[in-house]
Amino acid sequence: MSLFVHYFSLPYLLEGIWFTVAVTALGLAGGLILGLVLAAMQLGRFWMLAAFARGYTVIFRGTPLILQMVFAYDALPQIGLKLSAIGAAGLALAANEAPFIAEMLRAGVLGVDRGQVLAGQALGMTPALLMRRIIAPQAFRTMIPALGNETVSALKNSSLASVISVQELTLRSTQLASSTFDFFSIFFASGLIYLALTSAVSVIQLLVERALDLDRTTRQGRLAVFLPWRRVDLSTKLNLAEPASAAADLAHSPPLDVPARLPRAASRSDRAAHPAMVRRNNVAVEVTDLRKNYGAQTVLDGLNLSVRVGEVVALLGPSGSGKSTLLRCINQLENWDSGMVRVGGRRLGHCDDGKPLSPRAIANERASVGVGMVFQQFNLFGHLTARENVAGPLRWVHGMTRIDADRRARELLERVGLSRRADALPRHLSGGQQQRVAVARALAPNPSVLLLDEPTSALDPELVNEVLEVIRRLAIDDGLTMIISTHQIRFADEVADRVAFLSGGSILEQGPAHEILTNPRNPVTARFLSVMEADKAPENKA
Amino acid sequence: MHKWFSTEARTRRARSAAMAGLRLALGAFLLAGVCAPMSAHAAPAGCQALQAKYPAWKGKTLVNAINPHTPGYEAIDPKDPDKYVGFDIDLGEQIGDCLGFKLTYKAVTFAALLTTLSSGQADIVISDIYATEERAKAADFITYSKVFDGVLVAKGNPKKLTGINTSMCGAAAAENTGFVEVPLVQALVPQCKAEGKPEPTLQLYDNNANCIQAILAGRADTYVNDVNTVDQAVKANPDKLEKAIAVTIPYSVGIGVPKNKPEFRDAVLAALIEIQKAGIHKDLLKKWDLDPNNFKEPDILSVN
């Protein structure tokens, strides 16, 4: 026992900790950098890079670390790369950790809800911005336990550096054992030192998990302050900045739809007058001969649609008729095979010479043209509060200051009746509340067109009305240009100027809402409408 | 770390000290020197001329790759673990003093000694390594010591081992990876077969401590290695271990140097000759309780 205490406190062994930690740190840091590169290559658009990263992973995950250490130490000097022992050990450990870390990163990224990515794209976020603001923060949280594991594993693996003369704990222990013959006391002591180190890693892991736990720290986690994507909230200093932000608000009012923002009257007779009014307006969205196939299945079959500024068009039709695909094409969230989409007179997704744009360029185009989108599944950013869901994209995409963005978010949340829930996370909101936040988020940048993809289909029946009421007000009070795919016949009748009935990827019948809905000419439309009328809970239909 | 053992009993330290003293004209003077720290040895007079002849290493710091698991030859100092001590360490320092270079140490496994040298991660290997033809393909050697091995067994020699011979049939021998004893034990396989006995088995480890531990744990029956190492192990565990016998092995211990640096090899050889002429080599054997019969005039072993 006294021998054990002697060795446990022996400076020679304790100094070995430094080497162990140094090799581990080099291995983890290098592995993280290399792992990021590998993961990016595999998640990217270029198959050559992905194949290269795959090959690397196969080789370095498939060979023993001890061989890699010896290789880095003894073979690299043959090509003129003579690293120090610690350097060679760190390099080998990094090369070995990288594929494991890359797989963790990949799993984390792929684990982030695809819907949130779509929503981010629809808001005009570039791929890099999406990664930084939406995917990485959420992926990082899920990866912490695995990262903790990997750190412990790297710490233990660093002992293999003893074969290439790094004076770390294991090598020092064996040397000491050889010279003193106190085999067990020494290895118990060094085992305990390893245990202390790995326990420290576990404690750090738990602290980080705690600090980043969204349920504990709804606003600012203590540690989250240090993360680039979560800066200190300035809202406490809002009063100071009040006068400066008034001008900024004006700067952000939309030029495109000012003439169309005539208040719409709610009465039936006034409603009837509205289509005639918008008929003189400019074309906001024009879809020409749009075709799209998923393999052998035709989704859009030469579809034509024209929507004028201030007009509200409801898309009706059975599931699979192409409503959602059409909306996603209008917002460039999907590619199509032929045809053209113009929004505000601009042909989206292509350069002037007709070549497809890069994802980044498309994102910038989306942001500048202004097409807002509301999804069936809400797709709120899960790690951000309701306020941040609205304010974040304003800052990141549209360059608003935090103060202006927060003000705009507060206004919009108030309009959708959620000012009291501004600091709640999406997971703490009901479906109806989430969808109202999603509407606020889509409206925040003042889009010229708002696309709503079955906005109430995922809601419990008792929550449908609160969302429909919000949309109704947008149509009637604000005169917003909207294309809504829906199964809510009565709602379409109330809100829409025009109804388009889709079947098999093209428009079967379209015309003034009330006329089509009460007196359809096409037998397919008639049959669909009668089925929907018969269904007592149509809002449940997906 | 391969030393070998003659079948004669090893002389004890008191006797060897006396013999050395008698044999040398300056015996009395040198006996005093043994008690003083090694740094008390000034570099021999001829070294000045060597430094003039081989100036390339003067003032340099070279890396000595060692497998520091052999107390007496090279191991960390239990009293000050930041230092390496032993006969080989002192000899290396003497060579360095003579040629004007300093040494730092790189601790590697035994099997990695020569790869570390040939990859350029070390400049010299002075680590009780036996100079064999096979190893001379990887490095040039300046031999400096004869080899005697001891056969380490559990107390009472339960398997009745009598050397590296058919008494080892069916026994388990612990050895370090890369040791010359490994092929010697393997060579017993056909002999044992011919006599209808079970084959000896080999367990390969990384260092002496593990080999000795294998016997203490009852996993191995014997560990054949340099007799001094074996004696040290017995001294540390007198109730559990004993030396069955000492045997001679037909090798010499050598200093390994890179094959592509013949000038360095010649310089080390010349320095070693000076050190031996000054009687320092024998003093060092005495200082570390090693058998003076280990003493050997240097040769070069180099194969293409």
> Radius of gyration of chain B from the CA trace?
19 Å
User: What is the chain-wise order of helices and strands of chain B?
Assistant: HHHEEEEHEHEEEHHEHEHEHHE
Strand coverage percent of chain B: 25-35%
SSE pattern of chain A, N- to C-terminal: HHHHHHHHHHHEEEHEEHEHHHEHEHEEHH
With helices defined by DSSP (H or I, 4 residues minimum), what is the helix count of chain A?
20
CATH architecture tag of the largest domain in chain B: 3-Layer(aba) Sandwich
Helix % of chain A is: 55-70%
Distance between the terminal alpha carbons of chain A, to the nearest Å?
71 Å
Give the beta-strand count of chain A: 10
Derived structural class of chain B: alpha/beta
The largest chain-to-chain contact, stated as pair and per-chain residue counts, equals: A-B, 26 and 33 residues
Assign the CATH architecture of the largest domain in chain A: Orthogonal Bundle
**What does the oligomeric state look like here?**
heterodimer
Q: Note the main sheet of chain B.
A: 9 strands, mixed
Tally of helical segments of chain B: 11
CATH homologous superfamily caption of the largest domain in chain A: MetI-like
Q: What best-fitting shape of chain A do the alpha-carbon axes yield?
A: elongated
> How big a fraction of the residues of chain A is strand?
5-15%
Please give the largest β-sheet of chain A: 6 strands, mixed
How would the global form of chain B be characterised?
elongated
Please supply descriptive tags for the structure shown above.
heterodimer; A: 542 residues; alpha/beta; six-stranded mixed β-sheet; four-stranded antiparallel β-sheet; 20 helices; 10 strands; 56% helix; elongated; disordered C terminus; B: 304 residues; D-Maltodextrin-Binding Protein, domain 2; 2 domains; nine-stranded mixed β-sheet; three-stranded antiparallel β-sheet
